[in-house]
Amino acid sequence: MSNSAAGPSSKSKAGSSQPYGTTSFKHKRGVFQKDLQHMMYGFGDDANPLPETVALVEEIVVEYVTDLAHNAQDIGSKRGKLSVEDFLYQIRKDFPKLKRCTELLSMQKELKQVKKAFEVDEEKLAAWHQ
């Protein structure tokens, strides 16, 4: 992937079908490039991929996440609130993504429980020392 030339980008989806034009989010280019370079390397690309390739991957990822968030917001607005389930509903047909998301959510829940178990109540600690 590092030797591929970055062709013309397809901004037609993001530009034309954006019902959120009044609150459009302007993405600062290059914000995720360092992270994407590491991720691309981890998935088998060159350690230093072409800047054009990284920029193209960044554009694709940002567009995907933005579309996912907008679609989840559309679903959530019917109930009056946006929830994690709205995002899971969006990826329900992509089993590997759904499995990874549910795995990460369960790990997040476990971490919260572990942190809560190690929280020290200052009042109880002060009373115990007296």
Could you explain the architecture of this structure?
This protein is mainly alpha-helical and 130 residues long. The chain is 64% helix and 0% strand. The longest helix has 29 residues. The chain starts with 11 loop residues before the first helix and ends with a helix.
Order of helices and strands: HHHHHH
Proportion in helices: 55-70%
The number of E-state strands comes to 0
Low-confidence stretches: 1-24
- The number of helical segments is 6
- The helix/strand class is mainly alpha
Largest sheet entry: none
> What's the rounded overall pLDDT mean?
81
Strand content: under 5%
Alpha-carbon Rg, integer: 21 Å
Features of the shown structure:
transcription; nucleus; 6 helices; 130 residues; TFIID_TAF13; transcription regulation; mainly alpha; Histone-fold
Chart the SSEs and their pairings.
Blueprint lengths: L11 H5 L16 H10 L8 H29 L4 H7 L4 H24 L3 H8 L1
Helix pairs in contact: 2-3, 3-4
Question: Summed up, what is this model?
Answer:
The chain contains 6 helices and no strands.
